[in-house]
Amino acid sequence: MASAGEPNYEGGLLSSVSFFIAARNLRQQDTLLSYYHPRVEAGLVQALTSQRQKLRRAIKLLVEALASLEEDDADWGLATAAKVVEATEQRFSLRISLNDATTSRMDDHHGFESNRPD
C-alpha cells in the first residue's frame, strides 16, 4: 500500500482501508484487497458516493496510471482504463476529466470516446 504521507491518498483513505482490513471487511494479501460479502460492497459504494470529488480524483489517478503502462502491459492497461471509465460513468454517474496525453493514448488504442468538453 502507499505511504500515509502520499498526497494522492488524502482524506483518510489509508486509515479507512486499514480499519476495514482490521475489522475483516476487507482482506489483504500482499497488495491485493478483496471482500466477500455484498454488504461490504454496498457500504463501500455508499462511502464512495458520499465523497464524489475524492472518488473522481482517485479514479482519474487510477486511469492515468493504467493508461501510462508501457511495453507488455500497455494493451492491458489501456483496455482496463477504458473499462474503469465506463464503469465509473455507469455505477456512479461520474464523468472523469482526463489529461490530454491519457485521452489521446486511449483514443489511439481503443477508439475510446472521451468525455472532455470541447
Structure description:
The protein has 118 residues and is mostly helical. Helices cover 58% and strands 5% of the residues. A two-stranded antiparallel ribbon has the order 1-2. A hairpin with a 2-residue loop joins β1 (27-29) and β2 (32-34). α3 (52-67) packs antiparallel against α4 (74-92) and α4 packs across α5. The protein is globular, with a radius of gyration of 15 Å.
Helix and strand sequence: HEEHHHH
Beta-strand percent range: 5-15%
**In terms of per-residue confidence, which ranges show pLDDT below 50 for 5 or more consecutive residues?**
1-5
Strand order of the largest sheet: 1-2
Shape: globular
- The end-to-end span amounts to 37 Å
Using only C-alpha atoms, the radius of gyration works out to 15 Å
Overall mean confidence score, pLDDT: 83
Helicity level: 55-70%
What is the SS-derived class? mainly alpha
Total domain count? 2
Largest sheet: 2 strands, antiparallel
The helix tally amounts to 5
Key attributes of the depicted protein:
58% helix; 118 residues; 2 domains; mainly alpha; 5% strand
Topology:
Elements: H1 13-22, E1 27-29, E2 32-34, H2 38-49, H3 52-67, H4 74-92, H5 100-110
Antiparallel strand pairs: 1-2
Condensed summary:
The protein is 58% helix and 5% strand. The chain is mainly alpha-helical and 118 residues long.
